[in-house]
Design a protein that fits this description.
Layout: H1 2-29, H2 49-54, H3 59-69, E1 73-77, E2 85-89, H4 92-101, H5 109-115, H6 128-142, H7 145-172, H8 179-196, H9 211-228, H10 231-240, H11 243-268, H12 284-289
Helix pairs in contact: 1-8, 7-8, 9-11
Bound molecules: 2-acetamido-2-deoxy-beta-D-glucopyranose.
């Protein structure tokens, strides 16, 4: 089990890497501008914690608003008693500095790794030499001309043969549909195809169940929750298997099942996507599995 698990880790990390933008788009799509909140009040001792808790259910909207009013950066204190400090930014120059040019100045640390334990071993939670190594690996995989060409072909194929077909069908039968759900399905398929080399097929006329996409959203929600509550609180909930921690556990199971299913399908039919030409090993999962360092 432990060997199998360690093989899955980079795949997990890559899955998360690709699905994060999906989650971001999804969350942005649900933004509503009826918000009248002001900048968080900085109380003594409790700092901004009460405002964060009050806005937990619409964290993206709330942070967007605060960032817009604070010149794209603000500092915040973590939950009372934890001594945690946050620097929240949406300034591209800062983001580039933190994630790319000077990322070594910003080690993630053990607390962060604990919060994102579902991605343990992946680029989001590791530091030092392993992080440098995995960055180099991911960069080289994602910039491979072969993969880029394939992503282009997949994307065109998806839009032509699924999205347009879907729109045509809905228009000809005058059926209404949920655009946000449709986009989630499209983004999920588009993210999973380069990752596994097979099409999960969430975007199709029969609208199959989308547990894996929902589980991905749950993972992100619970991560937010863990960031804003004291560590002792979510760790206790995890031990008791209640609330968000229970949801996370279920989501983890769904995602493991999904990854396994994709791997099985990839093994059975290595060229199940595309125009029938064989592209052995041109997907992110294969490039990790073929690398002795990760297996
Ligand atoms: C950021 O990195 C560059 C080189 O990558 C270096 O020249 C610069 O001094 C670094 N800045 C800080 C604040 O560490």
């Amino acid at each position: 089990m432990s060997i199998m698990f360690s093989q899955e880790l980079p795949i997990y990390a890559a899955l998360v890497l690709l699905v994060l933008p999906l989650y971001y788009l999804y969350s942005k799509a649900s933004c509503r501008s009826k918000n009248t909140a002001v900048l968080p009040t900085n109380w003594p001792i409790l700092h901004m914690f009460p405002s964060f808790v009050a806005n937990l259910h619409k964290m993206n909207d709330y942070f967007t608003l605060v960032l817009a009013r604070s010149g794209h950066n603000f500092r915040a204190h973590g939950p009372p008693g934890t001594g945690m400090r946050f620097f929240v930014t949406c300034d591209p120059a800062n983001i580039r500095h933190i994630f790319t040019t000077n990322y070594t100045n910003f080690p993630k640390g053990v607390e962060f790794a604990a919060i994102f334990d579902i991605m343990s071993g992946g680029i989001f939670t590791i530091d030092g030499e392993p992080a440098r190594r995995q960055r180099t690996k991911i960069k080289s995989v994602l910039s491979s001309p072969c993969l880029v060409a394939r992503i282009e072909a997949w994307s065109r194929d998806k839009v032509e043969n699924n999205l347009l077909l879907f729109f045509t069908h809905m228009a000809s039968t005058s059926t209404s549909f949920n655009m946000q759900e449709l986009m989630s399905r499209l983004m999920f398929d588009l993210a999973a195809m380069p990752l596994f080399g097979v099409d999960p097929g969430l975007l199709s006329l029969d609208m199959p169940p989308m547990e894996a996409a929902v589980a991905m959203d749950t993972v992100m929600e619970v991560a937010y929750f863990r960031v804003v509550v004291p560590a002792s609180c979510w760790k206790l909930m995890r031990r008791l298997n209640i609330g968000p921690e229970r949801k996370l556990k279920a989501a983890h199971k769904v995602l493991c099942g999904f990854v396994m299913e994709m791997m099985e399908r990839r093994k059975i039919n290595p060229s199940s996507v595309g125009n029938g030409k064989q592209h052995e090993g041109v997907d992110i999962m294969s490039s990790f599995l073929d690398d002795p360092y990760y297996t």
